[in-house]
Amino acid sequence: QVQLVESGGGLVQPGGSLRLSCAASGIIFRLYTMGWYRQAAGKQRELVATITIGDSTKYAESVKGRFTISRDNAKNTVFLQMNSLESEDTAHYYCHADPVFQNPSRYPEVWGLGTLVTVSS
Fold first, then answer.
1. Using one digit for the tens of pLDDT, what is the confidence trace for 35-93?
2. 33 HSE (CA, 13 A, CB side)
3. What DSSP character marks residue 87?
């Protein structure tokens, strides 16, 4: 079964930290660029961070310096370490797998169902 399952979301105080995990199954993980997106209430879904098959990373300006994306190919898992969390970080966070090869039947694009992060005191 092809799926991404996020975990690690929850309630955290401003200034606190949280680590999200995304476990992939049914895909050749090492051939995918992995990403984290988020969607706050009433807003568009936005890119938070991506990590390529070569471990190159990119971040949204709003999270740069606070968030770190990483991957463990042996465990088919991508992580998002979130530090110095702010109320503005409150959102549903979604994991995304973007294949290097453009062959949907063999290398499908995959989205997780999301995990909720709430930053509040």
1. 999 999 999 999 999 999 999 999 999 999 999 999 999 999 999 999 999 999 999 99
2. 14
3. G
